[in-house]
Design a protein that fits this description.
It is a single chain. The chain is of the alpha+beta class. It has one domain: Chorismate lyase-like (Chorismate lyase), CATH 3.40.1410.10. The chain has eight helices and six strands; from the N terminus they run ααβαββαααβαββα. It has a six-stranded antiparallel beta sheet with strand order 1-2-3-6-5-4. A hairpin with a 3-residue loop joins strand 5 and strand 6. The chain is globular. It starts with 16 loop residues before the first helix and ends with a helix.
């Protein structure tokens, strides 16, 4: 259930100070964005059931037959601040369907930080670049930029048994929105 950091790209770089506080923030990034930028708007890009892709299998170690991918973009002042993908294994969804059904009208952050049965088991941050598969999920938000980005990957459980995962990739628009 825990992520093996060895499976992630190691760039040997350290995050810039203005990004590091976002990567290590233990509470809702959305609430932090609202506080720092004055607004935050979530746009759901897609939410669907798929077979686990290579990244799900290799990075998360998922062997399940289906996972739900929920991709969102978080904006402030029309700037894309981060991309996030929630990965929910089918068994985790089936164990607590009412919880995950709330994603139709609530953000994952609202669910995670308001539900006492949800626990963050692990959070790691790492850089991504053109050698990372995750980088190519972001093409519409990067344009022709070829920049290193920072991400954080969290493992959550519900009632200490049903894991789900959240990858958040901070985009260059975040700094434009908070400065």
């Amino acid at each position: 259930m825990l992520i093996k950091a060895d499976n992630l790209l190691n760039t040997l770089s350290t995050p810039p100070a203005e990004i590091e506080c976002w990567l290590k923030h233990q509470l809702s990034l959305t609430a932090k964005l609202r506080s720092d930028a004055g607004e935050a708007r979530l746009e759901v890009l897609k939410q669907h059931w798929v077979r686990p892709n290579w990244w799900d299998k290799f990075t998360l170690g998922l062997q399940t037959s289906l996972v739900m991918h929920r991709d969102i973009i978080m904006l402030a002042e029309q700037n894309p601040c981060w991309f996030a993908r929630t990965i929910i294994p089918e068994l985790s969804y089936q164990t607590t369907p009412a919880f995950f059904a709330r994603l139709q009208y609530e953000s994952l952050g609202d669910l995670v930080f308001s539900e006492v049965e949800v626990c963050r088991e692990q959070m790691i941050h790492y850089a991504i670049n053109q050698q990372s598969l995750e980088y190519y999920w972001l093409q519409p938000y990067l344009g022709s930029q070829k920049t290193e980005l920072w991400s954080r990957l969290s493992v959550f459980t519900i009632a200490e048994k049903s894991p789900f995962y959240l990858l958040e990739v901070l985009l260059p628009g975040l700094l434009r929105s908070i400065n």
